[in-house]
Design goal:
The structure holds 2 protein chains of 2 kinds. Chain A is an alpha/beta fold. A 4-stranded parallel beta sheet of chain A has the order 2-1-3-4, sandwiched between helices. Chain A starts with 8 loop residues before the first helix and ends with a helix. By secondary structure, chain B is of the alpha/beta class. Helix content of chain B is about 40%, strand content about 20%. In chain B, strands 3-2-1-4-5 form a 5-stranded mixed beta sheet. A 5-stranded mixed beta sheet of chain B has the order 8-7-6-9-10. In chain B, α2 crosses α8, α4 crosses α6 and α6 crosses α7. The two termini of chain B are about 15 Å apart. The chains are: A alpha/beta, B alpha/beta. The structure holds iron/sulfur cluster. Iron/sulfur cluster binds next to α7 and α16 of chain A.
Chain lengths: ~400, ~260
């Protein structure tokens, strides 16, 4: 089987992420403050205050990718945490206590910011962290947006933006600079637009990238949105992808089938899965996870970033109703011309996995494509069954390839 | 033209040989610990019984969890597609199939050509599979073969509430010590398997005509419980256990003529 071509920007990503973690780990020496924040949390005000944001979930992904999740989860279970708890939470809590994991634990936080627009787990998880590190915690509460962003939600969330700023002023002991904020907001929007453009290159046939590539290059839009580094990075990545498209270079050498992925990646099996699909000449051209960090572009504007950000963060993919999730997926199936949907039923992430069978039914009926379900925990490799997953993927591809295209 | 289908399951290995579109022989042996050997053995034994030579077989397809360890097969195809094809071959009217094997259970929907349109499989758990029944038969000291028949005499099936095989086993043991009738306990066990399997099958909306395939289809008690649970008739054919191997041999016929 021909190997997929390497993305040149892979190296650059490694370099930036290494620099980022070194800066965060040495923050106490440079006098900078560190905030731990949830992946869907409003990070831009932190950047505007020159605070280094650190993401336990990104850390969780690293733990998973380095196959240390099973061991750390086991340790968390020994501390009394349930095996049903999200494996990001389990592995991150364990690594905080034993200072273990791929980078020997995250740098100690000066403050914590938890936004519940992704799940309720993060609130309890961050409360645990707040007690453990004895640092202040800000909870940014975003009401579920089943269908619309109501007037009362709007007022409620906007107020919290002000409280959040007041919290930052107290912890950082300095005034919030609204001009800097406007600039950070502009850069955040620009980076999100570039990220969306990168993902959109997958509309080409063959697609220059797979969702698996996206899972890797996603790191900066999660951790450094609002900085110039992210903007420059995605400009270059976009250029590389556009060059591939114009040369007709596909990420999967003989792309024949195009699939869509739903839910978090299975971090410890990325390579295995990507090879498995490539062996069937299938390219994962779109997914709901990578797009979660640019989906809110439709709600946010640089003229009134703070206000519109309130709406954007409230209407995150995991904070909307199942009908809207299905609409989003069907739109993407049509946009990227997918022949099938692969759903990862992720025992870790309840808000992502609950409702998948209903969504699958709607996708089948309305988009007319088959759906596959595979089960695991995204970081805890003890819950993965290779032969079962393999049989399901093989059967799914046999099914798709026997349907006329 | 002769073709062969080999289905290596977790408990049994099955071989089927077809000639001119008809099944001319089937064979079932225990898989044991070496899937590759079992495949070779069941195939050789069947050839011998039929007085055939391997050179007369124009194409062989392997399937089942051990499908990739059969080095003499021309191609490996998953058991999902093979059960669909096999059931369609046995009865072309069938639109839904429930296959309960040794270590997994699955449900599929096929179209009028026997092509699989949708499927679901159980998660990583022995509940609702043949392995579950095997463990329970051992706890009750009943031969697995008699298990199905015995339960048909039950008037008041016991309630087995644990899904977990290990917990269910201890539940069964305590029912025995409470003096519950053996046929009632067995009927309860069958209902528990049927409940798991029907919940799975309902996810993809199985409908009539529905056929049950796989080794567990031989158990009349499970089939009856499943019928009750789903509220639709469950068809069972004598060849149910080798449906996957039949499907493989049918695919081998198409594959062989395409080459
Ligand atoms: S439960 Fe889901 S959304 Fe919440 S932290 Fe875990 S993976 Fe993220």
């Amino acid at each position: 089987m021909a190997e997929s071509p390497k993305i040149k920007m892979d190296e650059k990503m490694k370099e930036i992420m290494t620099g980022y973690y070194i800066e965060a780990k040495t923050a106490s020496e440079t006098g900078k403050k560190v905030a731990w924040i949830t992946s869907g949390g409003p990070v831009e005000p932190l950047i505007a205050m020159d605070v280094i944001p650190v993401y336990p979930e990104n850390h969780g992904a690293m733990i998973g990718a380095s196959k240390m999740g099973g061991d750390l989860c086991e340790r968390a279970e020994a501390m009394g945490y349930s095996g049903d708890l999200c494996s990001y939470a389990r592995s991150d809590i364990a690594s905080a206590v034993i200072e273990g994991g791929p980078i020997g634990g995250l740098p100690k936080p000066d403050m914590l910011v938890a936004c519940n627009n992704i799940c309720g787990t993060v609130m309890k998880w961050y409360e645990v962290l707040a007690r453990f590190y004895n640092v202040p915690l800000f909870i940014f509460d975003t009401p579920m947006c089943h269908t619309e962003y109501r007037e009362e939600s709007k007022r409620y969330v906007k107020r919290q933006v002000l409280e959040y700023i007041a919290f930052l002023e107290t912890v950082c002991k300095k005034k919030f600079d609204y001009d800097v904020m406007a600039e950070v907001g502009r850069r955040s929007i620009q980076a999100q637009q570039l990220w969306q453009a990168v993902l959109d290159t997958a509309m080409a046939r063959p697609s220059p990238m797979t969702a698996f590539d996206g899972f890797y290059h996603l790191a900066l839009i999660v951790t450094l949105r609002g900085t110039q580094i992210a903007v420059e990075y995605y400009k270059d990545l976009l250029k590389e992808m556009e060059e591939r498209v114009s040369r007709g270079t596909g990420a999967v050498p003989n792309e024949k089938y195009r699939l869509m992925w739903d839910n978090l990646p299975i971090w410890y099996r990325l390579k295995w899965l990507s090879r498995k699909f490539a062996a069937h000449n299938a390219c994962l051209v779109a997914d709901t996870y990578n797009t979660a960090w640019c989906r809110s572009l439709r709600y946010i504007h640089s003229e009134d970033f703070l206000d519109s950000m309130a709406e954007g963060y409230t209407r995150m993919y995991l904070n909307i109703g199942i009908d809207q999730m299905a609409d989003t997926i069907i739109e993407m199936v049509q946009k990227y011309k997918a022949d099938g949907l692969v759903m990862h039923s992720n025992r870790s992430c309840k808000p992502y996995s609950f409702g998948q069978f209903d969504i699958a039914r709607m996708v089948r009926e309305r988009a007319g494509i088959p759906c596959l379900m595979i089960e695991s925990h995204m970081v805890d490799e003890r819950s993965f069954s290779e032969s079962q997953t393999e049989t399901r993927i093989d059967a799914f591809m046999e099914m798709i390839s026997s349907t006329p295209h | 033209m002769h073709t062969a289908g080999i289905d290596i399951g977790s408990i049994t290995a099955k071989a089927v040989i077809m000639a001119e579109g008809r099944v001319i022989g089937t064979k079932i042996i225990f898989t044991g610990y070496n899937a590759g050997n079992a495949g070779r053995r069941v195939y050789d034994e069947l050839l011998r019984e039929l007085g055939l030579d391997a050179s007369q077989i124009s194409c062989t397809i392997s399937t089942g969890y051990g499908r990739n360890s059969i080095d003499f097969a021309n191609k490996a195809i998953t058991e999902i597609i093979c059960h669909g094809t096999g059931a369609h071959f046995i009865n072309p009217d069938v639109r839904s199939i429930i296959d309960v094997g040794g270590q997994d259970s699955k449900a599929l929907i096929v179209d009028e050509k026997g092509q699989v349109k949708d499927f679901v499989m159980n998660d990583k758990c022995a509940a609702g599979t043949g392995r579950f029944l095997e463990v329970m038969a051992r706890a009750l000291e009943v031969d697995l073969y008699d298990f199905g028949q015995l339960s048909l005499d039950s008037r008041k099936p016991s309630k087995i509430s644990s899904i977990c095989t290990v917990f269910a086993e201890s539940e069964v043991i305590s029912l025995i010590s409470k003096g519950e009738k053996r046929e009632d306990i067995i009927a309860g066990i069958h209902e528990s398997v049927a409940a798991r399997v029907s919940a799975l099958a309902s996810r993809i909306g199985v409908r009539s005509p529905l056929m049950m395939t796989g080794g567990v289809a031989k158990n009349a008690g499970v089939a009856a419980a499943l019928e009750k649970k789903l509220g639709i008739p469950v068809e069972i054919f004598p060849a149910a256990q080798v449906a996957g191997a039949i499907g493989a041999a049918v695919i081998a016929r198409r594959f062989g003529s395409d080459r």
